[in-house]
């Protein structure tokens, strides 16, 4: 069944009002009519089967038929902080990372990031990012839409990371040192509702200064398998592995 | 260090001759000269540090300085058979799947595949695929370049799968039945050198006929986490999870 994330202000008890792009999708793309049903997601993670009761001037009204018990959210919160990569790689990370269960994304200006964001275009970019994560959430049947924060500096990133209790960064060089704690040892220790902050470098990796700053702030360096992953593949490896460990390995 | 996969016929004991695109890359992109070094990969998975000894008419000759002991290959062989998806999704799967350690790829004509391959363009397409997996292998420091086989029918796919001892297909519906064997239970049983055949449906998933045919031929249906993954994300989840389990969870 088609799924739509509907803002809190559009819910009035069991009556939902849908306008804008979602209404367009319902009426023009799906060609739904009165009595057709879809899944409506309330932002506080509840979802319901909704039946269309009225269509007027491109606005859809629907009633909740049944609240659903389903939950497709990871048992831990994972935020991906990604050093600004080239081209449309960040968009790939947002889309695939949402499917794979990330709670949030933060782009940051890494020392080796080559792209510069035009301040004027930042709003347009953020709208586009919001659309990508919303659509990916709908398509993957998630209960929540991940957040995409604004571009941060390393300093702001470190400050933000103080809200998290598990902090890692992808840095294969570290796998060669003596006191190395492996990625899997960190995943094994995860407990429900842990908040995990994952920092990924841009194409050229982290600078020495960034590595030292991350370490000083309790980020643990991890290796993600023995092959060298491209910058946009690393977060997908992290998310798939944690999903596999917590949602597939444990659940059966 | 830059890595190049060099065909067997270009090796003569410890002397390597490089021409064509790789020579162009060495001389024009990397701007290497005599005495510069790179990693040369012999197709039988051995790699060596090679030093350039001669450059003439765009052809590079190099001597092996040191054979390397490194191995970045998965302990099991994994082939991804992918129901022909739309657009450039197959190219994404080839590139990311190579980074994540796949041994081979087989595109197949699924009942719900919408794209049709133009026979005339098939050779050009195969050249492009070969280039993608070669470049991804070099970039991710693999010892082997994965194979990309020609487009198969379901019948040919089933015949090909008889060479494999573990066969799975992504089919989340199945996670709801009683005798379900989870993906992680299958991964836990993997032993070194096992040959794993992974079948992924196109955008609309498998047809009922395909599901039945796969089951009759000992393919086990698996769920890949509780979220619905896009067709191109499913093989990446499988590869990252198996890498995580066999290369990260076990190795430490």
UniProtKB/TrEMBL annotation, chains A, B:
Subcellular location: Cytoplasm
GO molecular function: rRNA (uridine-N3-)-methyltransferase activity
Domain Ribosomal RNA small subunit methyltransferase E PUA-like residues, every copy: 18-53
Presence of keyword Chloroplast: no
UniProt xrefs under CDD domains: RsmE-like
Protein name: Ribosomal RNA small subunit methyltransferase E
Domain Ribosomal RNA small subunit methyltransferase E methyltransferase residue range list: 73-242
The enzyme's E.C. designation: 2.1.1.193
Catalytic activity: uridine(1498) in 16S rRNA + S-adenosyl-L-methionine = N(3)-methyluridine(1498) in 16S rRNA + S-adenosyl-L-homocysteine + H(+)
Similarity annotation: Belongs to the RNA methyltransferase RsmE family.
GO biological process, one term: rRNA base methylation
Keywords: Cytoplasm, Methyltransferase, rRNA processing, S-adenosyl-L-methionine, Transferase
InterPro entries tied to this protein: Alpha/beta_knot_MTases, PUA-like_sf, RsmE, RsmE_MTase_dom, RsmE_PUA-like, tRNA_m1G_MTases_N
Biological function: Specifically methylates the N3 position of the uracil ring of uridine 1498 (m3U1498) in 16S rRNA. Acts on the fully assembled 30S ribosomal subunit.
A GO cellular component annotation in the UniProt record: cytoplasm
Pfam name, any one: Methyltrans_RNA
Organism: Oceanobacillus limi
């Amino acid at each position: 069944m088609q799924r739509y994330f509907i803002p809190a202000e559009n819910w009035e008890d069991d009556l939902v009002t849908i306008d804008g792009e979602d209404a367009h999708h319902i009426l023009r793309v799906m060609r739904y009519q009165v009595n057709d049903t879809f899944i409506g997601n309330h932002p506080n993670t509840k979802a319901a089967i909704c039946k269309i009761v009225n269509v007027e001037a491109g606005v859809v009204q629907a009633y909740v038929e049944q609240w659903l018990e389903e939950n497709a959210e990871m048992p831990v919160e994972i935020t991906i902080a990604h050093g600004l990569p080239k081209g449309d790689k960040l968009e790939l990370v947002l889309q695939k990372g949402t499917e794979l269960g990330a709670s949030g994304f933060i782009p940051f200006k890494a020392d080796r990031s080559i792209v510069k964001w035009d301040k004027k275009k930042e709003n347009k970019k953020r709208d586009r990012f919001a659309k990508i994560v919303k659509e990916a959430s709908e398509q993957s049947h998630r209960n929540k839409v991940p957040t995409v924060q604004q571009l941060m500096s390393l300093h702001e990133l470190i400050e933000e990371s103080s809200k998290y209790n598990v902090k890692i960064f992808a840095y294969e060089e570290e796998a060669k040192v003596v006191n190395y704690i492996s990625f899997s040892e960190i995943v094994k220790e995860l407990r429900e509702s842990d908040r995990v902050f994952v920092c990924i470098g841009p194409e050229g990796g982290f600078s020495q200064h960034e590595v030292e700053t991350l370490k000083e702030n309790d980020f643990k360096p991890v290796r993600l398998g023995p092959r060298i992953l491209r910058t946009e593949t690393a977060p997908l490896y992290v998310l798939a592995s944690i999903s596999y460990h917590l949602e597939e390995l444990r659940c059966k």
